Amino acid sequence: MNFNWGTGIALFFSAFAISMVGMVMASRKHLPNMVQKNYYDLDLNYQDRLEKKQNTAALKVLPHVEYDDTIQMIRVIFPKDMKVERGTAKFYRSSTNDDEFTAGIENIFVLEVPAQHLTKGWWHIDLDWEAGGKKYYQENTFLIN
Q1: Nearest Cα residue to 59 out of 84, 42, 87
Q2: What region does 46 belong to: left with phi over 0, alpha with psi -120 to 50, or beta?
Q3: Same domain, yes or no, for 26 and 55?
Q4: So what's the pLDDT on residue 33?
C-alpha cells in the first residue's frame, strides 16, 4: 500500500473531525447547571464572606458536621462556649442544583437535620451564623451513604 503525505494529512484531519464530533456528543449529555443559583450575588459580597471566614479561622474550636447513618441525621455541632444567636445552614449538592434547602439556626449548640429524604452522595453545607456580635462563615462537605 502506498502511503504518502497527502494520505497522512487526510487521515489526521478525519480522525480530528471524528474526535471533535464525539466530544460534542459527550458534552451534550451534561447539563450546564451552576453549583449555586445566586453565584453573582455571592461574588459581589466576597469581601464580607472573607471577613466571616477569618473570624471562623480565629476560633479555637471549629464547628463540625457529622452524619449518623443509624438514625439518618445530620448534626452540626458548634463549640460549647459559643452561643449561636442566629444564622442559616444551606445544604446543596454540586452535581445538581435541584437538591438545595436551608435550615435556620437560632439559640442552639447542635443543629439536627433529618436526612431520610436526602439523595445519597456528597453534600455541601454553608454555615453562616452570628455569635457574640461577630459574624462567621464556614463551608463543609459530608457523605450520605
Answers
A1: 84
A2: alpha
A3: no
A4: 62
Query: Both ends of the chain: CA-CA distance in Å?
Result: 58
Cell 449548640 belongs to residue: 109
pLDDT tens string 22-38:
999 988 887 666 556 66
pLDDT in tens, 72-122: 999 999 988 888 899 999 998 887 777 888 999 988 888 999 988 888 999
Residue type, 121: G
β-bridge mates for residue 123, sequence order: 142
Q: What percent of the chain has pLDDT over 70?
A: 94
Q: What domain range includes position 95?
A: 39-144
108/128 Cα distance (integer angstroms): 14
- Residue 95, classed as helix, strand or coil, is coil
Q: How far is CA 87 from CA 27, 45, 54, 126, in A?
A: 39, 17, 17, 11
Provide the domain count of the chain: 2
Q: Is 5's pLDDT higher than 70?
A: yes
CATH of residue 126's domain is: 2.60.40.10
